[in-house]
Amino acid sequence: MYILGVWDGHDAGAALIEDGEVVFAANEERFTRRKLEVKFPVNSIAAALSHANLKPSDIEDVSFTTTEFTKTLSRVFPAIKENYYQFRRRKMLKPRVWDIKHNHWLKYTMTSIGIVPGSTAVSRAQVSRELRHMGFGNFKLDVVEHHTAHAASAAFTSGMKRALVVTLDGVGDGLCGSISTLENGKLERRQAIRSRDSVGIFYEQVTNILGMREQEDEGKVMAMACYSYPFQYEENKFRDFFKVEGTQLSAKYSWLKQYDVLSRISWQMPREQFAYMAQQTLEYTLGKLISNAMDRYNMHDVVLAGGIFANVKANMVIRNLEQLKHWYVFPHMGDGGIALGSALYTSYRKTGKSDYGFSAYLGDGYSTDETAELIRGDRSLAVQKETPMENASHAAELIDKGNYLMWFQGRMEYGPRALGDRSILARSDDEDVKEKLNIHVKKREWFQPFCPSMLESEAGSILEYDSKGVDKFMTMAYRVRHGKRDLTRSVMHIDGTARPQMVGEENRPYQELLKGVKKRTGAGVVLNTSFNLHGFPIVRTPQDAIDVMKSTKTKYMFINGLFITNRAGV
Ligand SMILES: [Fe+2]
To answer: Most buried residue among 288, 305, 315, 451 by CB atoms closer than 10 A?
Structure first.
């Protein structure tokens, strides 16, 4: 039995479940090379089918999510979606006549409308039409509500039997969050949080006012906040923006009014401080809400999904809550993960199965021969075949000597992070190589930190790690132990925290590389950043990888059993 999950909004994508097992998931951006793609995910769907050797007519169950008014409108008129995409990503010049109030009124009024009579039927018809264009025949189309899809993604992949399930994002289907419980295999919603009270929209607005792109640069706001001098919550000008009473969250202002107040406050202060206040407000509000929810439902294991939980510093506050015993954040927490969330929920509805496990390596992979064929005759590249073990120790040697290198192995990661299959790696204690990597390849803003991958067995010695959850997916911040701060110089933020990936048996080639690094340097830790060109999605195919290698003049790449040296590399 196959269930195909489809998401055709912000960071569109597809996922495939076969006989109760997730076999493929990917996002459209990796195919179209447009970050956070919004178009109908024809390429991801085709890749999912081809992975399982299926024709569209073989699929009997399709699941999709979100039928609110604006989403439905954009399904009928895709030009709306495309224009907003170009505008939001600042791919167009700022319009000469830009009446900000008018546009915000339009945006905020429209997106706060949830599901209205007829919107689900129209959405259903549009999605069916798109699928029939692709050759789909007789399929049942299941609609899953937005926050239910988020909740399912976290609950059913967490491996937990009994947990509190919290979802929080900007807005989806008229809500900005939900609180559910997972117990005896049953996912039950206990509470919904209406869109007006969205902490996600608050953070989006802060991002926008700071001159960054909303729904994309929120992580930069979090990083920038660390550069402010700290101050007490009582002095925070946003402290009364949100109220948490029990498990009720309420916002003081409407979205429009809030934007206005935030803009006026931002006038008064440096942007680091503005970011700090927003981050502090988010952490305080989330901490209180989740703490109260744990008490109310008497559950101390918490699983989380929704774009807000991309904020690893807020996640750290949640992890440190006294009552909390275990945590899990769904690795593809934003809307990019709801194709899978939706498919999981449909599968649960049909079969009752509520435990699916999770591997991040759900995208496409390529053989050594395919890769070798691609570069045959290319005189600018020198190629050498190596066994996986040779690959790992050779890469470790180059890293130890102060080089950065590209590491492309196995199946592409699902989610925003590169987790050792499409990564660029370097020493974790070398500021020079970090600078070089930044200038030639990553071009990150000065306040954005890089992150480490480390052997799972070393997490306790490097981090103030409390084993409330093994972090395989870079979803949590930890304090670095004082004695280890030299070792993590190039992967630690200015406040002494890091967002690590803890590597174990789930990725053997990468684990071997880290073991090789440990043999040479004494510590199994490296700098791991995503394999992409600045502003573009992570590479998907060997051809993408070679293009990035050449355009950035990167010298070394390990790809599917080949060691490639770029003769023009620097
Ligand atoms: Fe969402």
So the answer is: 305
